[in-house]
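Box 3.1 — From sequence to structure: Histidine kinase
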Amino acid sequence: MTNTTRCCLIVEDAEVDRRMMRRVFSRQYPRMPLLFAHSLAEARHKLATEHVAIIFLDNALPDGRGVDFVAELAGDARFRALPVILVSDWPSPFMYAKARAANVRAIWSKSDFRDGSVRRAVRTHALSA
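Predicted structure (token representation):
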């Protein structure tokens, strides 16, 4: 990691959702740096170069599924404890089972990405670490 400032990483490929997430997150944590990745490949690069404190991860991305990516993170000692909130348009029972096995902190629909939820997630999982 080249940067030691703790930041939030949002992995989301849809521009409209990125704008909404930026707006909500910035209202709650205007001083916490916010990074975006549009794909899993870009997320891997950000994780290698930035000090990420929490990830909000879409499930359906151009180069794979977020739920598979969290299993990858759980298998890597560097990222095993990194808090991940999976954010999906259509959470499925299969996704819940895979996410639980990979120690995902929560699964939200996109409509759950609101001020109070974001504030609680960051305070509980990122600021306490």
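Summary of the box: The first strand starts at residue 6 and ends at 11.
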